[in-house]
Design brief:
There is one protein chain. Helix content is about 60%, strand content about 10%. By secondary structure, it is α+β, with helices and mostly antiparallel strands. It has a 4-stranded antiparallel beta sheet with strand order 1-2-3-4, covered by helices on one side. Helix 5 packs antiparallel against helix 9. The model has no long low-confidence stretch (mean pLDDT about 85).
Length: about 450
């Protein structure tokens, strides 16, 4: 039989024998998801992934910071490089399913002279094509290819999840920086008021209207308030360093845009249906891809227990003289059968290991889904209650301001002591800082809800 006829025969046999694939195909585990995200929480058909992060965060300065972070953040660059690695690995696994062809050109000249009386030259020249193909008889190579695809998709989803995290972290740190700026402004305004209070208290003391006690009390209160300034300045610098790190830069001054009070964030975010959360959250999708990869590894371990067939062939020219080289065709075709016979139960143990890892991934996937639902419910509750807290803090700040004005007037008229004025001043400072913190929490509730629902991913 001619060489090419033998090749055609082996190729046909290989294709027919590779049609079989044994092992359990992947199915998503039963999750028994709830119909809604929680009690009294309305879940509509609209989804958060319809909102681009530029629509949610309208501050142009914040937008530029997010864009810079997505481009330069080192974790994002690492994730991108990881995707390149897994893409190449996927291509390797895919190529393993097909025949490989190599070329071998060889020339040697061996001379033997046993006993010193019979010098025998033995030259050899050859040029061959080497064919090799492992028949995927039970689906071993296809399982390996499926595992590589799932691992690749897991890295892609992991990068998308990282993008959501970076968008949220930049927004969070930016709002916290704005809140610190506002708090420092409040404290400096309070320090100025305290200095004016010390001046008035000294005038009243020098004029004999009060004892020395109110004057000294005002100095203590001024000194106490002044200690807040350097600590806030320290916190602002540290927060700027945190943002610089997210941006992939060395520590630097961070530009400011809108103040915390003027940030125009959505009053409502579409929650969507619980069943769609699995498709919106890239971290959950990544967990499922890892589960797919673990299932494929079970298939690999299972098919490793069955025989493997490898076809090999050499085709070319081989001669002991260059003059006859073209006239010396050479071909060789062989099939090797490798089957496990005895390995002290190693292959069965490998299968058990793969099944145990798959079982772990099932529980991890279910845990990730539970964690996602918990984050969404927590974020929704926080989002709803943050508005109420901010309103109550605003009412408290307004009342504290009115009380300070009344206490100051009564003190000047001799109705109350200076200690009552100091209490009113402390109350106003606490109320102003409390309102500032409530504004921050209200803004952050939007950030966390947007991220929890899977918002923030855009193709780059």
């Amino acid at each position: 039989m001619k060489p090419y006829n033998i090749c055609i025969l082996f190729l046909t046999a290989g294709i027919l024998l590779s049609a079989c694939k044994i092992g359990k195909q992947y199915t998503r585990p039963e999750l028994n998801m709830p119909e809604t995200f929680g009690k009294d929480i309305t879940s509509g058909e609209s989804s958060i992934d319809t909102l681009d992060w530029r629509t949610v965060y309208t501050d142009s300065t914040l937008q530029s910071l997010i864009e810079k972070a997505l481009e330069n953040n080192k974790d994002m660059l690492i994730a991108t490089a990881r995707i390149k690695e897994m893409m190449a690995n996927k291509r390797i696994r895919f190529a393993d399913m097909f025949p490989s062809v190599n070329a071998n050109i060889n020339a040697n000249d061996e001379v033997t002279n046993y006993g010193g009386h019979n010098r025998t030259p033995d030259p050899e020249y050859s040029a061959k094509l080497l064919f090799s193909w492992e028949l995927d008889l039970w689906g071993n190579l296809r399982w390996a290819n499926e595992e590589a695809i799932a691992s690749y998709m897991a890295t892609v989803e992991a990068q998308r999840a990282l993008q959501l995290t970076i968008v949220a972290e930049v927004a969070q740190n930016y709002f916290e920086l704005n809140a610190l700026d506002r708090e420092l402004y409040i404290v400096k305004q309070t320090v100025a008021a305290r200095r004016e209070g010390v001046r008035l208290a000294k005038l009243r003391f020098d004029g004999g209207l009060t004892s020395e006690t109110p004057y000294r009390q005002s100095e203590v209160e001024l000194a106490r308030t002044e200690t807040l300034v350097p600590d806030l300045e320290r916190q602002i610098k540290l927060k700027e360093n945190d943002l610089s790190f997210l941006l992939g830069d060395y520590p630097q001054d961070i530009p400011r845009g809108k103040s915390l009070r003027t940030q125009n964030l959505p009053e409502y975010l579409p929650v969507g249906l619980p069943s769609t959360l699995l498709e919106r959250r890239p971290d959950v999708r990544a967990a499922e891809q890892r589960l797919r990869a673990a299932n494929a590894n079970v298939g690999i371990a299972y098919t490793d227990m069955f025989p493997k067939i490898r076809l090999t062939g050499n085709f070319g020219l081989e001669s002991d003289a260059l003059s006859n080289f073209i006239k010396s065709p050479y071909w060789f075709v062989a099939g090797d059968l490798l089957t496990p016979i005895f390995a002290m139960g190693k292959n069965k143990a490998k299968l058990k290991v793969a099944k145990a890892i798959y079982e772990q991934e099932v529980y991890q996937y279910q845990k990730d889904v539970l964690s996602a639902f918990k984050e969404v419910n927590n974020a929704i509750v926080t989002f709803r209650k943050a508005k109420e807290i901010r309103q109550s803090r605003a009412n408290l700040e307004k009342a504290a301001h009115a009380y300070l004005e009344l206490a100051t007037l009564q003190y000047l008229n001799g109705v109350i002591s200076y200690i009552d004025v100091l209490d009113a001043q402390r109350g106003l400072l606490d109320a102003q800082i409390g309102l500032n913190n409530a504004l921050l929490e209200e803004r952050l509730s939007v950030v966390f809800l947007y991220k929890a629902l899977g918002g923030g991913y855009t193709s780059m």
